[in-house]
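Help! Submission page says 'invalid entity' but I think these are all valid:
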Amino acid sequence: MTDFVWLVIAFPLAGAVLLHFLGRRLGEPLAGIIGTLAAAAAFVVAFVAALPFIVEEGNHGETVMLWEWMPAIGANLEITWDPLAAVMALIVTGVGSLIHLFSVGYMHGDERFARFFTYLNLFLASMLTLVLGGNFAMVFLGWELVGLCSYLLISFWYTKPSAAAAGKKAFVVNRIGDFGFMVGLMLVFTNFGTLAFDGIFERVPEILDGSTATAIGLLFLVGAAGKSAQIPLYVWLPDAMEGPTPVSALIHAATMVTAGVYLVARSATIFAAGDAGIVVAVVGALTALWAASIAIAQSDIKRVLAYSTVSQLGYMFIAVGLGGYIAGIFHLMTHAFFKALLFLGSGSVIHGMHEEQDMNKMGGLLEKMPVTGVTMGIATLAIAGIPPLAGFWSKDEILGVAFEYGGVGIVLWVIGLVTALITAFYMTRQWFMVFTGEPRWEEGVDPHESPRSMTVPLIVLAVLSVGAGFLNTPFRLTLEHFLEPSFELVKVAHPPEGLGMFALLAAISVGAGIAGAAMAGFVYSRPREIWERFQGGFGGLWEAWQAAYRVDDLYGATIVTPGRKLSERMAFDFDAGGIDGFVNGVGRAVRSAGARTRVLQTGLVRNYGVGFVAGLLAVVIWLVIAGGGV
Amino acid sequence: MLVNQFLIVAALLFAMGTYGLLVRRNTVMILLSVELMLNAVNINLVAFEAYLRTSEAIGQVFSLFVITIAAAEVGIGLAIVLMIFRNRQSANVDEYNLMKF
Amino acid sequence: MTFAQVLTPPSVGWIAIAPEIVLGVGAALILLFDVQYKPKRTHLGLATAAIVATAFAFAIVQYDRVQTLSQATADQAADFVATAFPFDAMIVLDANAVFGRFAMLLVTGLGLAAGWRLFERLGARAAEGLALMLLSATGFMFMASSTHLMMVFLGLEVGSIALYVLAGITRERTESDEAAIKYFLLGSVASAVFIYGVALTYAGSGSMNLLEIQGVLARNIFTRPAVLLIGIALMVVGMGFKVSAAPFHSWAPDVYQGAPGGIVGYMAAAAKIGGFAALIRILFTAFPDFISTWGPLVAGIAALSMLLGSTVALVQDDIRRMLGYSGVAHAGFILTGVVAGGAGTGEVWFYLGVYTVQLVGAFGVVAAVTGAATSGAGIDAFRGLSKRAPFLAATFTVLLLGMAGLPLTSGFVAKFGVFTEAWQAGYEWLVIVAVLASVIAFFFYLRVIVAMYMEEPVDEAVAPPGISVRASLALASLITIVIGIVPGPLLSLAGEASPL
């Protein structure tokens, strides 16, 4: 019935192909409009295809086989169209369309305007492959492709060295995650003999024992932590802000970074069969608190949001780790709205401020940019968890799941509450720093409201940030009923029953949120000297937050440098002495001067010979001993 | 017939060839060392053949092949050495590392 | 033993060696015609292509014959033996041999087209180069089709000696000389080691025929098989050298860098096919019962190759050298499939087939960018290539991504296949190492792609590649993509290719 669902992927893919070949000729703004239309068309198709789930309760959806690629291992071009996939597709295409529209204004005048939309469309197609794929091979394909697009888009302004470096960093860190994911997939394949969802999830109880399920879960967690920027692999996301702001909104806030959450939710049966879930939740909780604390002291408008994203993803991990899959997806959705709004709003600010990102050089912008200011204010209230905005409902549901879990869950609940307080604090701080107080603009900056194509998406997203929460309130569980068929095989965790309990928990978390917001409002609505005194009160702690706990330096010293040294040593020393070449050594010498070449003229072939004979002896001895020859 | 002494001679010859390969600097001498290794194989083959006495006399036949191939190999080897000598006026294998980058 | 016995004419099955005959005779004819008539180089090239195509046609005939043989019933047994094991069972006509020929001939054809500019540059000696190329292909094809260690050795030498000469064929270039002498010296040592292993195997089992060895080993239990084990070890080392597996890889980066650009892709690919064909044949046919002994050894070599190859490739600034080290890593990946024993034959062949095509194509691009008769290819020459030569940049990207094993390229299917086989054979640790190595490998391939697409171009213009070069590069990229999307047919073809 929903055979046509492949069009969801096909539209953005066709857009990417078209723009790749004709983009330059189409020029501005036509290329952007075509890209936006491709995304919007995908949204419409996804919406139509999702109608059966809305109309008919308990509809499981279906697997649409498009084309048999490698049927023997269950790797085909197939789409699993179920409520979970539908929700993800709607978020991706919906938010994606708005961000495309926003980019038409934001990228105005960029010489690679069309290329930008090519990448954005390609990203959408890849992301949809990831969330719609009916087997792990397609998920993996999408997983790799979104990573590639992310890399391309972060370093979109590749002439900026920091952008190129950030792209590289994202790529490297993600490879570490992918390594875990790949090994996990290998384990899945050897246990099930297929990669197709249809042959895996239903058979989990009969095939996987607890420890194997835990192992797969932990390996998937490594992959998810890379993509979704969780401890210890979150370091790439703040740097990824070097990319154009719409990219940050689309890829590094609303969609790609949620792939890890999606993966855990999709593999719910595997996580339910082992004990990996609680690890996921603990990692999520630690990340939430850790990143939130860093966000307090950032002064770059986008970095605040980046750490905030890491922190909010931590919330989603708490939910899916504890079995609250629907709560996790719910928060994924509301977060996509208000975080995309925040990023686009910050993009609007940056645009209006002539590429200024330092909040210390802003202030008093509300008058100049009223739409941006008001919509960002709404998003700030939403992420702070102030009822009845969207963030309140989804965050509360996650906290409720943690509370109901008991034991460790209570600890996670407390961490979640503290994080909620901090979140309210730093977001309010940001809003006041940017939009109120005395202007602290640099000379010659003339802030102005952004064009219509940029403010319309802001308004739409603001409406969603207000209203999306009502999709799943304790009074009316619309999303819950919608998603249930996707999670029939597992027991989904819920917040405590009863409105009294709900009111109590909500009161506590809202209290935390208001406390945080009030504190920030109290300090940052006053002149600058007051903030500085306030910040000074934290002493060294503030500096540690500002420097993001110096994790980058730590990684640099402990992992990156030794790794580089090792591979260099293998090429220069080990090889020069033992086997091969001073490889680059000689090369460099030849290139610089002939004088140094003579120094390095040791016996080459004979050194190779030594290596060969040593290897030969090792092989002979090994085989003779191993084979019981003596 | 005891085959051990032949095996030992062959192994010694092979080891000598290997040693020559590792310590000699003159390319021609290295070529000769490789020849030693090949001849060690020939001794082995002939000795085993005499020991096993198979119907096809495969060991003897094979040793003839090895001798032929060794000759071909040396021919090619000397040609390469000559070519490289013409370019560099040296047959010292330790000097053949000008280009490595 | 009487004279009569010795003089019994061997059972002849021409069809079993028809492609080799075509290539060998063709090589001789090319030399003779060149001496007599001095034909144009283009004509020589077309003649060589025709010879390769004819050999390929014969290989298809052989494939058909093998298909028929596989349905042979018991009463056709005598016929079966005569056709499948001609020349007193020194040669075998089985799917393994035929697949080896397909791969070898495809690589030869591609290599010829991609490196055509080199033969043009060789001038009067073009015929020699072409003949040597055909001869080396003949030798390596024999390695795939022999069941007798003597034939394996002959094939190895015929192939290798031709390659030594090809490495130095530009003559006046000191880099090429050096590549030639290094390849030659180390290669002849490896050959000596290999036949020493043959001799010891002969001593241990009483035969040089792989099938007979297998029979002897299956019937007898050796309490102290030291001689045999050393024999296996030495043969593995000899073949490990040919396929450039660590720690016997030291020649590869130098030769890949120093040999003339137009021929080096063919050299690398041909040696890999020949070496692996013989390795499969020896280990799977003669010593399947020793798999618990040689399996861990091969796994160790594989792990070392993958790790060393991919880490050292990271710090290379010369594309050819980088490809050399990545070739070491790929040898390790293929060996990962070898540890699974006979079950992994199909996956190993599949990997070999797709990788060698990528290799020839990649070196074709390098030759087109930095010259077909030169040595070395610094990464600087590739900066901004997408603007200067978009076609070359695009094909190079496809081929490199294929080598990296990105999904939807043939490399991904190949890697997945060998990893799965190794995992099912119980080498989980090796698969983890392999995945790690392929993750590392992503970087150096990507680095080249980034240099081509995201860095400012250098001023040097790239001479537009000729039609043959463009055709071969397009074909190689097309194979990489198509096999990645539709791997089924090749997978089943390779799956049949287990040795008899």
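Support: the input was valid. A stray whitespace character was the problem, and the output above is from the cleaned input. Chain A touches chain C through 55 residues (CB under 8 Å).
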